[in-house]
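Task 17 of the worksheet. Students: predict the tertiary structure of the chain below and write it out as structure tokens. Keep your answer in the requested format; marks are given for formatting as well as content.
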Amino acid sequence: MDRIEQFSTIAPDIGNIFRYISIGTAVPLIVAVVYREWEMILPMLSVPVTLFLLGTLLARTPRQEREAPLSAALMAVALIWLIMALTSALPFSLGLGIPYLDAVFEAMSGWTDTGLTMMRSVDDLPRTLLFWRSLMQWLGGIGIVAFTIAMASRTGLTQFRLYRSEGRSEALMPSVVATGMEMWKIYLILTAASIGLILLSGVSLWDAVNIALSAISTGGFSVHSAGVPYYNNPLLEVLIVPVMIAGALPFKLYYLLYRHREVRVFDDQQARLLFMLVALGIVVIAWDLVTLSAVDLPTAIRHALFMSAAAISSTGFQVASPNEWASVTVLFLSMLMVIGGASGSTAGGIKLSRVVLGVQSLIWWFRRMFVSGKVLVPFKYDGRVIPKNVADLEVSRNMLIIMLYFLTIFVATVLVMHLQPTAFDSSNVIFEVVSAMCNCGMSAGFVSPDMADPAKVLFIMVMWIGRLEIIPVIMLVMGVLKGFD
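Model answer:
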């Protein structure tokens, strides 16, 4: 199948996705009207109009009467996320007059739930754009395809393939459409509960809504340049922590609670590991801050709790600058970001499920080395015995993704240090690249509007690659360069 034929199998489905998502992108227009920011109407209107027109054009593409291969689904999802960032940049460029590349960086950071920013002063932004940043992260947290599947009753391209290609694997219901609907019900309930919880800290409704949208999606955009420290509110910091953790837990747990009234948080391997890593982070970071950075114990514990929860959940909120910490503490925080939250959550990173599977596969390999080749050593995962042929395949895929993550981080770090010579310590540069790759958004100050354009492009690519877990982007590049056989 050549590239034109392959595109014809996926173009109508991409078009339908753009038309459905255009409805969601029109919501900030309500904010523009409420706050009488009339000058933001046309810049903000450019997004839903562009997506709807582009979607209509693609939806009318004659469809080839054949099932699209998995490679087409992977390529489609990578293309969808790239086009969404390119289109969503328009309000920043048209409304603020900032360079289009900076606007694309902001939009990609928003949709991928990263939280790194090119805005010099967030406090000066119109409320329409502030809400647009929060909304991108909220929609991006659940996934563009998941959002569309929940709204549409059918799509020509195999729904499950699109859904899996976006980096999601949870199957709460027999059909992917039903799963999408259940996820959205859970997501809306979690968001409403998060807003109510954050309001208890005494912040305004406007701030609570934006903080909740960013926190439950494990994003990290803030409505103030100073971020969470702007409020100087320890209670707010404490209340944000459970919201970030809630976003990093597998939605399957909420489904069991919602549908079957079963509370199985500590029965889940990913949930147990998540809480263990948060606890480990509190101990290690607090110890480092006290012994290496001369921070008083109460402040050290407070910062350790928030920063470890933010790192493991890949939420870009922070209450301290890693640039002021010892290098070993920065690298430990980078490790938490690389691991990330649970599969089937809004968090980024390698995912806890891959870490669990990776450790169990290493144990399995070593056990097989110490017995006769005729002895069958069972592979157990999540309480089930997996057939050897399936285990070998899944373990290989798992290790491939982990290897590609670290390879991408290594190559990107080397490239950015060549593209953007800096006085920052190398540990801080690594931290920044890891933050982008794992869609966390914590920053030591290296990423800024003053970066060279090639470095900005590199970070845009890294955020995109990290959100889609590498493979879809590789398939898109292969498809553009040589097509698929």
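Marker's comment: Residues 150-165, 171-175 have pLDDT under 50 and may be disordered. The longest helix spans residues 388-419.
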